[in-house]
Amino acid sequence: MRRTATCMAIAVALAGLSSGCSLSSMEKKYKDVTGSEKKDSRVELNSAHRKQLAELPGLTGADADKIIAHRPYENRRDLVRKGVLTEGQFDKVKESVYVEHAKD
Length: 104
Prior knowledge:
- By secondary structure, the protein is mainly α.
- The chain has helices at 2-18, 23-34, 50-54, 61-69, 78-81, 87-93; strands at residues 43-44, 97-98.
- A two-stranded parallel ribbon has the order 1-2.
- It starts with a helix and ends in a 6-residue tail after the last strand.
C-alpha cells in the first residue's frame, strides 16, 4: 500500500514536470480549483496596517495601536518583551505574525 502511494506521488510529480508546469501556471491552477488565490495570511509586524493587526485573533484596535507605537521589532517575541501583549495574547497571534529582516 505504501509503495503504491509512493509510486503514485512520483508519477504525479513526473507528469507535472514533463508537462512544463511553471510556478505561475500551478498558482493559476490552484486559483481555478479552489476559487481563491494562495496568499500568506500572516502579517509582518513592522509594516502591517492597523486594520490587519486588529483582525488578528484576540486583538483589538487598541492592541493594534500599541503594536504600531512600539515599532520596530527584531522578532515576534518582542511583542511580549516590550510589554505590548500579554503572554496569552501572544500565544494566540504568534503563528499569524512574523518580522521580515533587512537583506544586506
